[in-house]
Write a structure and sequence with these properties.
mainly alpha, 62 residues
């Protein structure tokens, strides 16, 4: 039981004293970057899906 308590104490010290947290502006810019990248990748995958759909419909009509 002592090992578990020690683990939680060390985790709390590491999170409060040893970890450097990003500033609010850096956090916002990172979040915006993730959202923009997600939208771009979703659009690219939609285009690839559309191309394969047309390719498969062309093959099936032969």
């Amino acid at each position: 039981m002592g090992k578990i308590i020690n683990y939680f104490k060390e985790s709390a010290v590491e999170l409060t004293k040893k970890t450097t947290w990003p500033t609010w502006s850096k956090l916002q810019s990172s979040a915006i970057l993730v959202m923009v990248t997600t939208v771009i990748l979703a659009f690219a995958l939609w285009l690839i899906d559309l191309a394969f759909q047309h390719l498969m419909s062309l093959i099936y009509t032969l």
